[in-house]
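Practice problem 4.
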């Protein structure tokens, strides 16, 4: 079945065309046929990049005023230029990445009128995401009226967290009335990575206790016990937890109050500062991109050294905490741009984890880039692996499963 996976943001549209089926999932042979992105929607210099798996590429800079126009550009490329489709009707399913499913959605769901209304109602919790995700739904529905639409939520995998993990120690009414609690994000990534790790060993996720580290521009750690997320580092918003490319992660709420009151920053300014000027960017002053920060560190820049050290220290601290919270773990899995590609960062994170039985294999770690590989020594009590993530593939698989009504894994 051909599935279109959509990730629609405030000024961007990303898509992948994926071929999958129950048999292909089983054999791990489902595959991406094309991917594309339209950036700076609404500007006069929007950028369109469309690529097939075979390498055919279209790239253009032209005005794309509305999301609907971005869809039309992508669809006309798919139909007329990519050579992959004769007609759009061949796309039988559309999988939408939806950021926030609140407490309502514990798994992916067909986008019935009722589901769409409930996603809309959750927009308060994700005002910068859910409304744009729904714009994607409206445009896809208009242009692909026959295709089945499915919502796949970033938060759903973490709905299994026990109350002790998700409750904030503030008056309980803020939870019951205002829904302020920890939700966690990157659920599709943590779920995919743990599934692929178990599959490689001929087992299921429920056979393991795993600690998954998604380290990309956004970063989070997840404790997975018997197949279920029992804790994760992102919270009410994706701002909590690890230090990220440009987000601060854990921060004393008192510091936020201080900035608002004493530093005479408005709410919007504090928001922008903590989300876009903090993390690696804020501490190093160099970049939000780990590669740049590592280069600056190699040149001897002190703040870059501090940024990398603080980044790795916090990941290790969370892994240690989750190890204890689960009463031990079988393996730590590294995913995301940093987790998959930086032996240097993985080595720094792993150093203090010797205390809980992780013995890294230097050569295996040095060689592992972008492919599933064991990076701990034979016999290490706690294993470490690189397991590349693929959120789009999981969205396509869930879309197929919802359409065919087969159980999710
Ligand atoms: P996103 O979270 O937006 O999907 P990615 O998962 O692609 O992002 O991760 C982006 C991060 O991965 C950036 O900080 C980038 O510097 C980092 N990264 C990519 N390749 C490497 C590498 N070889 N070494 C260190 N960091 C890397």
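Answer key:
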């Amino acid at each position: 079945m051909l599935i279109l996976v959509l990730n629609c943001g405030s000024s961007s549209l990303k898509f992948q065309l994926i071929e999958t089926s129950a048999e292909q999932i089983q054999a791990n042979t489902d595959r991406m046929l094309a991917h594309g992105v339209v950036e700076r929607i609404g500007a006069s210099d929007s950028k369109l990049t469309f690529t097939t798996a075979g390498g055919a590429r279209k790239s253009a800079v032209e005005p794309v005023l509305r999301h609907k126009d971005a869809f039309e550009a992508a669809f006309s490329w798919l139909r007329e230029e990519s050579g992959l489709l004769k007609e759009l009707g061949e796309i039988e399913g559309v999988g939408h990445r939806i950021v926030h499913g609140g407490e309502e959605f514990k798994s992916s769901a067909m986008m019935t009128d009722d589901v769409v209304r409930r996603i809309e109602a959750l927009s308060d919790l994700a005002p910068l995401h859910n409304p744009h995700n729904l714009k994607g739904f409206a445009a896809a529905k208009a242009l692909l009226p026959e295709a089945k639409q499915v919502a796949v939520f970033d938060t759903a995998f973490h709905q299994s967290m026990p109350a002790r993990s998700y409750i904030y120690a503030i008056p309980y009414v803020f939870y019951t009335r205002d829904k302020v609690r920890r939700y966690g994000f990157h659920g599709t990534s943590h779920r995919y990575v743990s599934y692929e790790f178990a599959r490689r060993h001929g087992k299921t996720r429920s056979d393991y206790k795993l600690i998954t580290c998604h380290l990309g521009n956004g970063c989070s750690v997840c404790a997975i016990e018997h197949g279920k997320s029992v804790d994760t580092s992102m919270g009410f918003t994706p701002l909590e937890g690890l230090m990220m490319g440009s987000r601060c992660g854990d921060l004393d709420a008192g510091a936020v109050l201080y900035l608002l009151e004493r530093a005479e920053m408005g709410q919007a300014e504090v928001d922008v500062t903590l989300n876009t000027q903090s993390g690696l960017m804020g501490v190093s002053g160099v970049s939000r991109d780990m590669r740049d920060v590592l280069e600056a560190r190699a040149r001897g820049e002190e703040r870059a050294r501090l940024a990398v050290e603080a980044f790795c220290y916090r990941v290790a601290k969370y892994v240690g905490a989750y190890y204890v919270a689960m009463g031990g773990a079988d393996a730590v899995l590294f995913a995301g741009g940093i987790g998959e590609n930086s032996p240097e960062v993985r080595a720094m994170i792993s150093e203090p984890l010797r205390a809980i039985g992780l013995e890294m294999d230097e050569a295996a770690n040095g060689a592992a880039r972008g492919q599933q590989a064991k990076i701990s020594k034979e016999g290490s009590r706690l294993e470490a692996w690189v397991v590349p993530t693929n959120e789009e593939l999981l969205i396509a698989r869930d879309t197929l499963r919802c359409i065919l009504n087969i159980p999710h894994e």
